[in-house]
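re: ur msg from earlier - yeah i can do the coenzyme A complex, just paste it... oh wait u already did. ok heres what im feeding in:
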Amino acid sequence: MTTATPNSPLVIRPLVAADWPAVWALLQPTFARADTYSYPPDISEPAAHAAWVEAPAGTFVACDADGTVLGTYCIKPNQPGQGAHVGNCGYVTADAARGRGVAAAMCEHSQDEARRMGFRAMQFNFVVSTNEGAVRLWQRLGFAIVGTLPGAFRHPVRGYVDAHVMFKTLVGTET
Ligand SMILES: CC(C)(COP(=O)(O)OP(=O)(O)OC[C@H]1O[C@@H](n2cnc3c(N)ncnc32)[C@H](O)[C@@H]1OP(=O)(O)O)[C@@H](O)C(=O)NCCC(=O)NCCS
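and the outut:
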């Protein structure tokens, strides 16, 4: 899929093995800051690969016209078994590419992909309340805060802060 952005065309496609070094280069500093995700800040490259590429049902990259990786997302069932019809995604945009609509495009793409994979809804389990740009972005894209976990995230600077559960139904309510 190609998505027009104000700056350049964005191509969102499945990750291939050759993308991993670029994906790790944007995941590593994000996880190390430890202010948005609960991955270990010192997560090893193999562990990050296992979590972002091997365990999910799919992993995608968002690239600019030159093929530079600007962002990545992964998608997987939120729960096994009777909860497996609800999807879950993680999104990271490269520091240098933030605020240009990359995550918005990835989230829209992931919702189409989720429907294609048969997911009926999308749940974000642990959106850190201090990640205000992300909370606002997901709300703008139709996700509702359905619950707030008091002090559930230990922020490296702000201490114990709330985390939101966010949810969006992707298909009709027919059974
Ligand atoms: C959250 C994140 C994915 C947003 O990516 P992005 O590509 O900058 O987002 P977009 O450009 O599509 O959307 C920008 C919106 O998010 C806000 N925003 C969030 N983080 C921002 C940042 N670091 N710089 C600029 N804008 C940011 C903007 O205010 C903007 O909102 P608006 O459209 O209402 O003005 C990105 O900051 C990131 O990778 N953060 C670290 C990992 C993370 O928090 N993932 C989400 C966990 S729930």
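cool cool. The pocket of coenzyme A is lined by residues 30, 36, 91-93, 98-104, 124, 127, 131, 133-134, 136-137, 140 (CB under 6 Å). ping me if u need the other ligands too
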